Amino acid sequence: MADLEIDFAKLTELQSTMATVQTEFGLAEAFSEAVADLCGHDGLAGTVKDFGSQWNLRRAELITELSQIADAVRSVHDTMKELDQSLSETVESYRSPAALRAYRSEPLPTPIPTPAPPLLNASRDGGV
């Protein structure tokens, strides 16, 4: 049976990284406006503002998508933590002295006899 290994430190690190990316994406709008104001040429400033406006729309979509992914990562982290705790509690409950005594005191099931399969190449009168 395969082991299930979850690196909770990596999941926590991923959550932190995603929060940082979301924050940076949110701050980018103010940056694009500042760059357009520094261009010094109306045509170039207009182009930078147009680009910034289009980028703002796409960035908003990306922030929404990042938020959904961050929620999924958080859900995986929380679910796996709960599963790990539940499995640990189950294993520990079977290690208790009372559980071991109960397990050892249960009789083994009685095997059910089954008819023997017919012999190959055997005749009805018992010859071979």
What does this structure look like?
Helix 1 (8-38) runs antiparallel to helix 2 (42-95). The chain is built from three helices and no strands. With 128 residues, the chain is an all-alpha fold. The protein starts with 7 loop residues before the first helix and ends in a 23-residue tail after the last helix.
| Residue runs with pLDDT of under 50 for 5 or more positions | none
Biggest β-sheet description: none
Shape: elongated
Question: What's the count of strands?
Answer: 0
The proportion of strand residues reads under 5%
What is the helix content? over 70%
Span from first to last CA?
A: 45 Å
Radius of gyration: 34 Å
Give the domain tally.
1
**Average pLDDT for all residues:** 82
SSE arrangement, N to C: HHH
Concise account of the structure shown:
The chain is mainly α and 128 residues long.
Key attributes of the depicted protein:
128 residues, 3 helices, single chain
Give the topology.
Blueprint: H1 8-38, H2 42-95, H3 97-105
Helix pairs in contact: 1-2
